[in-house]
Amino acid sequence: MIVVDNLHKHFGGFHAVDGASLEIEKGSITGLIGPNGAGKTTLFNVIAGVLEPTSGRVTMDGEDITGLPPHELFGKGLLRTFQIAHEFHSMTCRENLMMVPAGQSGESLWNTWFGRKRIADEERALRAKADEVLEFLTISHLADEKAGNLSGGQKKLLELGRTMMVDAKIVFLDEVGAGVNRTLLMTIGDAILQLNKERGYTFVVIEHDMDFIGKICGPVICMAEGKVLAEGSLAEIKANEQVIEAYLGTGLKNKDKVGA
């Protein structure tokens, strides 16, 4: 579905992404792991159009999307979330969700005068869909709560809900576990699995929690120093000598030997 070919992103002399190549299969939940500074978030930003690449190519379903701005990629069904949730603080959870779909009739000055019925019908439909999403995510009790009052985990659930308000094809999730308690993290994981199985969402997930990666991800990609270091199942990644040295640490290797 997504093919990244020899992608580079340089900031002056610093090569944040340094010739990364990888493929994301349609219908997969792919984990992206690696040490801090490995280039994972920068890679997300380039694929999602937040940053322009220095060189290289990104295709989606065979179409070259390299350097397209986020709003165009949004229209193609490519969405991303951020390590720090980007909610509208002063709006309710329901209103945050209702804001997502583009091209709403109420955005037109003409329609505010002559298309009021259409606007009202759309708002009723959006409200119903938002309530359905909140129910799916088990946070319907927060529908009228200001988003700024939510916990870190609840904000991550709300961000996931925003992807459900449009026809998302692939969603890039940046550290969904950051600042989230264990119970809510498992709720997020269950929602991701359900969206993948029932609605066909493809996910790419940056996360440091290996238990969470093991719970939801099939293929796992490990990056280090801007490059793809290894790809495979989580078991294969954990057994990879280069990955152990660069990211997981010698402690895991020694622990496995003791347990053998």
Compute the separation of the termini in Å: 39 Å
Order of helices and strands: EEEHEEHEHHHHEHEHEEHHH
What is the CATH level 1 assignment of the largest domain? Answer: Alpha Beta
User: What's the arrangement of strands in the largest beta sheet?
Assistant: 6-7-8-3-9-10
The CATH topology name of the largest domain reads: Rossmann fold
Topology, number of strands: 10
Approximate helicity band = 40-55%
Overall average residue pLDDT: 88
β-strand amount: 15-25%
Instruction: Give a short account of the largest sheet.
Output: 6 strands, mixed
List the uncertain runs: 250-260
- Domain module tally: 2
Rg from C-alpha positions? 20 Å
Examine the secondary-structure arrangement and name the CATH architecture of the largest domain.
3-Layer(aba) Sandwich
Structural class: alpha/beta
Number of helices, where a helix is a run of at least 4 consecutive DSSP H or I residues:
11
Principal-axis shape: globular
CATH superfamily of the largest domain: P-loop containing nucleotide triphosphate hydrolases
Describe the structure.
Helix 6 packs parallel to helix 7. The chain is of the alpha/beta class and 260 residues long. Mean pLDDT is 88; it is low at 250-260. 42% of the residues lie in helices and 22% in strands. The strands form two sheets. A six-stranded mixed beta sheet has the order 6-7-8-3-9-10, with helices on both faces. The radius of gyration is 20 Å and the shape is globular. The protein folds into two domains: 25-51 and 65-86 and 165-256, 3-Layer(aba) Sandwich (Rossmann fold); 88-149, no CATH class. It comes from Marivivens niveibacter. This is ABC transporter ATP-binding protein. Keywords: ATP-binding, Nucleotide-binding, Transport. Residues 2-250 form the ABC transporter domain.
